[in-house]
Amino acid sequence: MSQKITAAITAIGGYVPDEKLTNADLEKMVDTNEEWIRTRTGIEERRILSIAGKATSDLCVPAILELCKKRGIAPGEIDGLIVGTVTPDTFFPSTANIVCDKIGLKNAWSFDLAAACSGFLYSLTMGASLIESGRYKKVVVVGADKMSSIVDFSDRTTCILFGDGAGAVLLEPSYEGYGVLDSILRSDGSGGPHLHMKAGGSLRPSTYETVANKEHFIYQEGQAVFKFAVKGMADVSAELLERNNLTGQDIAWLVPHQANKRIIDATASRMGLTKEKVMINIQRYGNTTSGTIPLCLWDWENQLKKDDLLVLAAFGGGFTWGATLVKWGY
């Protein structure tokens, strides 16, 4: 009987641009104030990739190169690359395809996956299934978004929330039960009207009119999204624990999508976790969409211990949401 293969995370890389956009900077741009942003969202500053000619692929590249260096592998050894993003460099070729060219992933097949803020979780589950199949030995999963490219910096309800960044993990086969153990992922397209981009796709292709009407930026109804997100993220995380006969005491870390401090607190509370067990870096990076969860892992890597159980939880536009149970392998 062949041994069960699980997909272990064996290395992490991350990247955020140098340029900071602080709450004080935003005070000068829109009608808002530092204290209001901080108390409502938990955000103090975010990183912006403002260099001309730089795109989401340029966030992915340094994250993947760091991961390769840490693991001591060459890019050519990677079998597959999945990039979770809603801000691709171009509609096609995919951002993953462009990244392959930029760093010499000559032996990999690659694709983008779009699930908004749940993009990394969806991609991680997809990547894990490729490893579990036994056909692939090294799969890189990236969550990356250049949100500044679709933010209207005159809209005070959305421009305060988002930043740019990328995080990447390397998945490799484990025969000791490390890595991705379980995932519950959900999708409900009826949530689309509350959080979406109005134009730019095949339904409403770009015209002078769509550009003039600012329809190529994020549109969000904050209250509706907040209500769904609190319930969705908390419910699915609790369900994941129950399904695996675990309680909050068994979990070393909650790794939540960094959209809003209040949503994170609600999820932790539902799982019975103290705030010491929750990764929060929203104050430094804001909401980097697909980038938030892997950037947390990157920031906390040196605090993670072998055998730690982690719950990764996300909620995104669509709506999409989910939770993933990971057993840390190094």
Please, could you describe this protein's structure?
With 330 residues, the protein is of the alpha/beta class. It folds into 2 domains: 6-177, Thiolase/Chalcone synthase (Peroxisomal Thiolase, Chain A, domain 1, 3-Layer(aba) Sandwich), CATH 3.40.47.10; 181-327, Thiolase/Chalcone synthase (Peroxisomal Thiolase, Chain A, domain 1, 3-Layer(aba) Sandwich), CATH 3.40.47.10. The chain has helices spanning 23-29, 34-41, 56-71, 95-103, 119-132, 208-212, 222-243, 261-270, 282-285, 292-300; strands at 6-15, 20-22, 45-47, 80-84, 109-113, 139-146, 164-174, 179-187, 195-197, 218-220, 253-256, 309-316, 320-327. A 5-stranded mixed beta sheet has the order 1-7-6-4-5, sandwiched between helices. It has a 4-stranded mixed beta sheet with strand order 8-13-12-11, with helices on both faces.
